[in-house]
Amino acid sequence: MGVMAPVAALIGNLLDLGRAETAGLYAGSLTNTPALAAAQSLVDPSEQSLPVVGYALSYPYGVLGILAAIVMIGRVVPQRPGAEHDTELQSVTVRVGQGRGQIVSNLYGRYDGAVGVSRVQRGEDIFVPARSDRVEPHDLIAVTCPADLVEAVIGSLGDRPSAQLTDDRSRLDFRRMVISNPDVVGVHLSKLKLTARYGATITRVRRGESDMLANLETVLEPGDRVRVVAPPERMADIANELGDSERRVSEFHPRGFSIGLLLGLLVGLIPIPVPGVGSIELGSAGGPLLVGLLLGWRERTGPLVWQAPHDVSFTLRQLGSLLFLGMAGTSGGAALRSALAGGDGLRPIAAGFVITSLSAALLVAVGKWQDLGPAGTAGLVSGAHTQPAALAFAAERTGDPQLDLTYALILPAAMVTKILAAQLLILI
Asked: I want to staple 248 with a disulfide (CB 3.0 to 4.6 A). Which of 131, 180, 266, 337 is the partner?
């Protein structure tokens, strides 16, 4: 997104726009509110409303243009070979065929961890297998995997019997539990040793709106909803260890949040020298973002949990955006009215149209060049424009997990780049 800053500067010069309005135009056409805040921090108090004017005039098409680009992506970006698949998780019972017995960990490895075994029936015995256990011919095993792998797994292991292991809940039951105990947050499932201690396993994790297959490397986060398979008499012990409290997981624990926010604000104040210009800062948006990335990677430090529950995080994010937009609109409303009344608003609107359209076209071209497929390209466009609305819109059109992955990889770099570029547009 840094490449669009010179384009915005060129268009601003051609249209005789001021630096402050050009910076707001850049932030609005690329739909980045923190960049607007960074630009406002460098302008004179008498010009505080000018970046808001450029932002407000270019922002609407900044949103609508990217939504239109996502619609077009499905038509112009070819699907990657073998990428069409159904990622919905399904459970199926398989009877292991003659000569197809194998160690459970080898089965996991064959499908790159996309298959899990939650229970095994051998004769009259039903148990949760460890990774080192071996399934033998005539065993009935309950397998969880993406829907598109079901037939392949059955074909490689044996056949499908008429009865389902999951129908019998007398000896092994299953239940959804919510992760609310901070002692298990940021912990790998392998360290909980549920199979060895309770004869239990976690087969699925629902995080936000996404379901994923659990494995030993899965790290639990607050608010995760996990499916536990365990003997009925051990369910209470496991629930006590995981927390399983909706009330507790919705509570906001301010220690980690406050310390992380303070560190982020301090980092945001560190001046970054730019030869021939002066210095710029990450500011109150970029600093916390950078520190948040580092602390989120750490998950936890001793008793401090850096991860907030998904619902709490979403609420705070929405509240912060609403408060800032409300304040920005209040301070810039009068200047926006004057710009529209005087006919000067058409130039920033046209400039925003050009910047947004050019940016979207370049990103779609990169997606095709890198063979990302429609979902990956949509994630690239949404992340580069730091636009959750575009991500949600794209998610309704595809269930490919590459959408979220690409978005998450691109968004932090795009956010920091825009914050710095908006300040350079003011200073240069």
From this structure: 180
Tokens of 160: 């499908």
- Tell me how long the chain is: 428
330 pLDDT more than 70: no
CB-count exposure of residue 100 (10 Å: 0-12, 13-18, 19+)? middle
Tell me the pLDDT tens digit for each residue of 332-348.
565 556 656 666 667 88
DSSP reduced 3-state for 93: strand
Those residues whose C-beta lies under 8 Å from the C-beta of residue 325, and which sit 6 or more positions away, are 33
Distance CA 197, CA 195 (A): 6
SS3 51: helix
Q: Is 192 left (phi over 0), alpha (psi -120 to 50) or beta?
A: alpha
Q: What is the pLDDT of residues 347-396, one digit of tens each?
A: 888 888 999 999 999 999 999 888 888 888 999 999 999 887 788 788 77
223, 211, 212, 213: which is closest to 186 by C-alpha? 223
Q: Is the dihedral of CA 304, 306, 307, 312 positive or negative?
A: positive
Pairing of strands 134-135, 102-103: antiparallel
Residue 186 is inside which H or E element, if any?
Answer: none
Q: Angle 373-384/402-427 helices, nearest 10 degrees? A: 30
What mean pLDDT is predicted for residues 211-222?
87
Q: Which residues contact 240 (CB under 8 A, 6 or more apart)?
A: none
- Do the strands 158-159 and 89-96 form a parallel or antiparallel pair, or are they unpaired? antiparallel
DSSP character string of 95-144? EEPTT--EEHHHHHHHTTT--EEEEEEETTEEEPPPTT-EE-TT-EEEEE
Q: What is the C-alpha separation between 281 and 21, in angstroms, rounded?
A: 20
DSSP state of 243: B
Q: How far apart are CA 12 and CA 30, in angstroms?
A: 15
Crossing angle for the helix pair 402-427 and 283-298, to the nearest 10 degrees? 150
H/E stretch holding 363: helix 346-369
Contact 308, 26 (CB under 8 A): no
